[in-house]
Specification:
By secondary structure, the protein is α+β, with helices and mostly antiparallel strands. 43% of the residues lie in helices and 12% in strands. Mean pLDDT is 92; it is low at 1-8. The structure holds FE2/S2 (inorganic) cluster (FES).
Length: 164
């Protein structure tokens, strides 16, 4: 899997490209087509690398700077791929006061990545999130949707090892 840290090249398939071109030709003459095209492109590729943005720009005639501007403005668009295991640490108030900042730091050290990145082998990506409604278990992190609560930084290596 491609990763920002390593600059692994984008690897889209012909099928993905054909699917995107079909979506663009169906939508491009409609007003306000850029957002739905970008949403579909993200569904097809899983994220929106610059190569996909360039394809959208070429096919719609919308300048790449505009496509890029939209992709960075809206948090729904991911410019980096996600890892096979998606780690999300809650930095909401209840978790933060109970030390989720330390948990996050430990993960950064252990995995060698920071917020929004994935490991070079594509196994893990790391993100922070707001309150996930499990404040009673603070501090909380989730891996692939599974909740881990009442964490200490010392718990982290053992948990990560389960996903290696
Ligand atoms: S603040 Fe973390 S679950 Fe609510």
């Amino acid at each position: 899997m491609a990763c920002k840290k390593q600059g692994v090249p984008f690897a889209g398939t012909e099928e993905q490209r054909d699917e995107l071109l079909k979506v663009i030709s169906e939508l491009k003459d409609e007003k306000g087509a850029l957002m739905p095209i970008m949403q579909k492109a993200q569904e097809i590729y899983g994220y929106l690398p610059i190569e996909v943005q360039a394809m959208i720009s070429d096919e719609t005639g919308i300048p790449l700077e505009k496509v890029y501007g939209v992709s960075t403005f809206y948090s729904q668009f991911a410019l980096q791929p996600k890892g096979k295991n998606q780690i999300s640490v809650c930095l909401g108030t209840a978790c933060y006061v109970k030390g989720s900042g330390e948990i996050f730091k430990k993960l950064e050290e252990l995995l060698g990545i920071t917020n929004g990145e994935c490991t070079p082998d594509g196994k893990f990506s790391l993100d922070s999130c707001r309150c996930v409604g499990a404040c009673g278990l603070a501090p909380v992190m989730m891996i692939n949707g599974e909740v881990y609560g009442r964490l200490t930084a010392d718990d982290i290596p053992g948990i990560i090892a389960k996903y290696e």
